[in-house]
From TrEMBL:
Main location as per UniProt: membrane
Pfam families: DHH, DHHA1, GGDEF_GdpP
Organism of this sequence: Acetobacterium fimetarium
The keyword Membrane is assigned to this record: yes
Domain DHHA1: 557-649
Stated name of the protein: Cyclic-di-AMP phosphodiesterase
Subcellular location: Cell membrane
Domain DDH: 343-497
Function: Has phosphodiesterase (PDE) activity against cyclic-di-AMP (c-di-AMP).
Source organism phylogeny: Bacteria, Bacillati, Bacillota, Clostridia, Eubacteriales
Amino acid sequence: MRDTKKEIVWLAVAAGLLLSTILGLYNIAFGLIGAIIFIILIIYYTKNTSFDEIKIDKAIDEIYSDLDQINQERMYEMPIAMAIVDSEGIIYWYNQSFGKAFKNEKEGLFKKSIVDELEFNLSEAIKEEDFIFNYGERDYGVVTNAFSDSVHSFELLHFFDITEQSKERKLYRKNSPLFCYIVNDNYDEIIEKIPSHKRSAILGKIDLKLNEWAKQLGSVIIEYESDRYLMIFERGKICELEKENFKILDEVREIENDEKIPITLSIGIGISETILGIVESQDLSHSALDIALARGGDQAVVRRDEKMSFYGGKTEASEKRTKVKARVKAYGLKELIKEADHVLLMGHSNPDMDCLGSAVGLLGACKSLGKEGKIIIKEINYSIKSLFDYLLENEVYQDAFITPKEAESYGTKNTLLIVVDTQNVNYLEMPALIDQIPKIVVIDHHRRSGKTINNTLLSYTEAYASSTCELVTELLQYFDEKNHVNQVEANALMAGICMDTKMFTLKTGVRTFEAASYLRRKGADTIISKILLQDDLNTYTAKSDAVKNAKIYFDNVAISMFENNTDYGKVIAAQAADELLNIKGIIASFIILKNDEGLSISARSMGEVNVQLILEKLGGGGHLAIAGAQFPGEKDLQVGIELLLEAINKYKKENGA
């Protein structure tokens, strides 16, 4: 409205100026009189207009001042706790709700640090959208608003009391359902070996144990297949189960039968920190069961998103006698090789004889199918040097090896990557290749642990097997081609089996000897395997020193510490651990090696002690009788032995030893 009036006045002024100019053209006296009147009007208007605007501006300022006063009073009296702090967290203002909730009654909080006084993480509150602050027994959702003057920056903090909502949320999470998948590991053996009149009694005992367990938990259990159960219980019960280390595993294992078949269970439970739907929840639990089975069974796996907790696993995986699985996997692998443009074979970093031998065996399969195969090796270490030199004596293998850098050019959509002797992404010779190549096959005999390779087209992982070479040999037997394994490849596979079984003395089953018999028919010579596994004098001397340094703990556990910066230090540690088991009364051995990379532990057992469970507490893994762990960057051997002894004590406490 004020703007419209201004426009009318200025139009009148413009008209007066035009009229004065016209009068001046006809009569100078009239023009001067008009000009004087025009100037007087301008002066009068300007003075009056300025005065009016001043009055209006003053009135507006008064209105805003009144509003500010009202806002300040309302902010101070608001039921929501509020405070203004600077970038350092110094409190410049707070309202009465904030004072009631947080104020130090003796001194107050004005000009004090909210970070120090309340242990409030200001940077996280600014960064996170859903920041929750716990103070005493109350929970607060914090919302921040930034503002500044010409010099300082401030944050207006709003504290919304969400204690009741937090209690409801915790109660909901505690009572939310969890899916628990259970598998009878030895169902097939029970059906096959136990007479029908006794079979029902054994299965009935298992069923009774599980139903009693479910009743104690207040859960629902359903047998959805002859050897599989689904149990649903409240999330709050998981702590109780973990505290008792899933005692149901021990109770079922104690069920006796005349045929001495071990009765074991595999259990998988998935828990997520985020709220999942029914399908996602059961998928998470089912993946936990898959991990338990891949690790050999007789254990429970609790998967919290990507973090795994393992319970049980006290017995070695029993050897499966059916060969149907091997035949199916062999057929699938054969078709994948045929369809691929290139085949890359990769093992773990610092490969050993089993890793290289299994890769060489699969290389022969690729050749027999008319496909080019390449083995990725970063560098030749002491463990494989003798086998590598043996292979290079034959010109067929002189172009079979490539470096990780050279492997980049093979990373096409139709390249097949076969990973052998490991499932852990972090242990690969070239971890980045997993993301570049979509077609992946995994063949391994280790129990699953750590960050595993997902989205594989085919996975053949059997923890019962003595070695990856044994698994590869089984697969090759079901390839139709007659000449897919020559004598050199047979010797490489045999050397890998001999190394992992210590010349058929450890972790050796019926299938191991069947694989060795097949390789013997293909021309493998155990004398060549023995030669490939021989040590030079320096290695043998260093191994003897490691054995000599051993000390006995707990009456039957040998632990030795030694330092070796050579390329074959880890080989010496592994061999020394084997040698310590030859000492009478020793049931488990540990070698702690210090080298330029840090500390590493090699562990061996006669079977009575599960060294895998011990070293898993230190971030390692392996098998019941063979395991390892690493501490990159750690240089103090004393730290290594303290951590190891602590892990052994925990293991003994958990297992009542």
